[in-house]
Design brief:
Tetrahydropterin Synthase, Chain A; alpha+beta; three-stranded antiparallel beta sheet; 4 domains; elongated; 7 helices; 271 residues
Length: 271
Amino acid sequence: MEKLPKLGIFSIVIIIVLVIVLAKSAVTVGSGEAGVLYKTFGGGVVTDEPPLGEGFHVVAPWNKVIIYEVRQQEVFEQLKVLSSNGLEIQIDASAWYLPVYNDLGNLHQSLGENYLQRVIQPAIRSAARSVVGRYTPEQLYSSKRDVIQEEIFEETKKILDNQYVQLNEVLVRDVTLPNTIKDAIERKLKQEQESLEYEFRLVTAAKEAEKVIIEAQGKADANRILSASLTDKILQDKGIDATLKLAESPNSKVVIVGGGDSGLPIILGNN
């Protein structure tokens, strides 16, 4: 009878141990995540095998699994950088990134879970300072925003390609200049626009004048050619034709051929 309680206590202890071991061994990797396996007695971080994918996994209770998000993520940066002439410019930018899936073990071993602060943000800041320093505030404010966005992306990507991180995009959302510089640039752009508009009006007026001259010249040439082709005989024949047509009118009664100047007919009416 005394053995039963001892057996029951032992069974309970075994069950508790099994539950603890199972809890330590069971790992669930969520959607959009991956797990890096750390073998306590087997060489540390596993870098020569793919990470643990989504779902349920069982590992030795003395090992660890470090969970990483492997979906695309975004980091927002508000930077104060200097332009080519030394003026301070504020740039609001964001970057889309994600860890390289098959290199997740190397990423964990070399940079750790806070790789964003250790390498991505410093890379973006360094690239932004380098790129913006090549341009004037006017270029940054107007025509070069897309260019500097692409250049920041390329320079940041060069750094991160060797850091087990994939950079997908860098977006320059806003460029803020000192108010005095911004006002001066806007005035200059307005003046340039007005100048272009005035030049357009001059060109349009010149084309209209040229068109009028060409039309007048064409009419003058046509009249000159027509005048040169008309002879007295042609004019006389035309006059006879016109007179005969008039004679056919009900108001015309008598036609005397050859009675007028140059031999043209004379029409005598009722009156």
